Prior knowledge:
The complex is a heterodimer of chains A (234) and B (113).
Chain A: H1 4-20, H2 23-36, H3 41-50, H4 54-65, H5 70-81, H6 83-91, H7 100-108, H8 112-124, H9 128-156, H10 168-178, H11 185-200, H12 208-233
Helix pairs in contact in A: 1-8, 1-9, 2-4, 2-9, 2-10, 3-9, 4-5, 4-10, 5-12, 6-8, 8-9, 11-12
Chain B: H1 2-28, H2 41-47, H3 50-64, E1 65-66, E2 69-70, H4 75-89, H5 95-110
Antiparallel strand pairs in B: 1-2
Amino acid sequence: MESSFRRGAREGMRDFLPLSVGLVPWAIVTGIAMRSIGLSPLEAMGMNLLVYAGTAQLGTLPLIGSGAPLWLIFLTAMVLNLRFVIFSATLAPVFHDHRFMRRLASSYLLVDGMFAVGADKLQRADDPHWRWGYYIVPSAYCWLLWQLCGIVGVFGAGVIPQDWSLEFMTTIALTVMMIPMLREKPMWVAALVGGLGAVLLRELPLRLGLIAGIALGIAAGFIAERALSGRAER
Amino acid sequence: MIEGVMSEGLWLWLTLLAIGSTTIMTRGSFILAGEKGRLPPALQRALRYAPAAALSALVVPDLLLDGGGVDPFNPKLAAGLVVIVVATRWRNPWLPFILGMAVLLVLRKGAGW
C-alpha cells in the first residue's frame, strides 16, 4: 500500500513537470545576467540560494550594477515579491497544522509555477500527508532545477565576449515577464503609468523616481479597475 | 586597496541577504504566522498591480533613455520592440533572448548606432 505522501508527490510531479521545462531558459538567463553586472560565480550562486526568486533577482540586478542605495534595492525587491503575500495568504490554511520548520521550507520554496498549478488541489485536499507530498516534492525539484541551470548560466557567461551588451538580457527577461500580465486593461494602465512615471520622475533625488513610479502605477491600476467596473455596472 | 575590495564584497553579500529577506517575508507572511489570516480584499486587489507597475518602471526607462535623455530612436528600444512582438507571437522561450540580443548587437556593432 502506497503512502498518501507518495501518492501526493506523484500527482504533484505529474502536474508540475510539464511547466518546469519552461524554467530552464529563465534559470540560465538569470545566471548569465548575474555575471553580466560583475558578480563572481560564487556571488551569483549565493544570490540564487539566498533570494531564489527570478523576478526579484533580475529586477534588482540593474540597481546593484549601478550602485543604487541599499534601501532602494530592498524596496524594489519587496515590491517585485509582493504577489507572494497573496499566494501565502491563500496557502496558509494548507500548511496550518505543520511544524514551523516545514512552514519555513514551504515559504522559501513557494514559486509562481507551483502556485498556479497546485493551489486549487492543495486547498481542496483533506489529507495533510498527501498535501505535503503534493507540494514539497515538486517544489524541491523546482529548486534543484533552478540552482543547476543557474550554474550552467553562471559558467556559460564566461564564454561569451565581454562587449556583447549582455546586461540587456535582464531587460529582455523583465519585458517578457511583463507581457502575460497585460491581458486586462487595468494592468495596462498600471504598467503604462509605472513606466512613464519612472521616466518622468527620474531626476528626483535618491532615485526616488523608481519607487514613485511604481506607487503611481499601482494606484492608477486600482483606480482604472474601479472606473471600468463602475462603467460596466451602469 | 584590499580593505576596499573586502568591504565591497561584504556590502554585496549584505545586499543579497536584504533581497533574500524579502523572499522569506513575502512568501512566509501568512504561512509562517500559521493563522488563518485574511488579507483585506481592497489591498489584495491593489497588490495585483505591483508586479506589472514595478517591471514596467524598471524596463521603460532602460528602453527609452539613451545617454541621460529620452531618445525614441535608439538600439535598445528597437530591440525591445522586437522582443515584445516575438514574445506575443511565439511560445518558444529562447526566441525573445536570441532575436532581442541579435537586433541590439547588429544595430550597435554592425550599423554602429
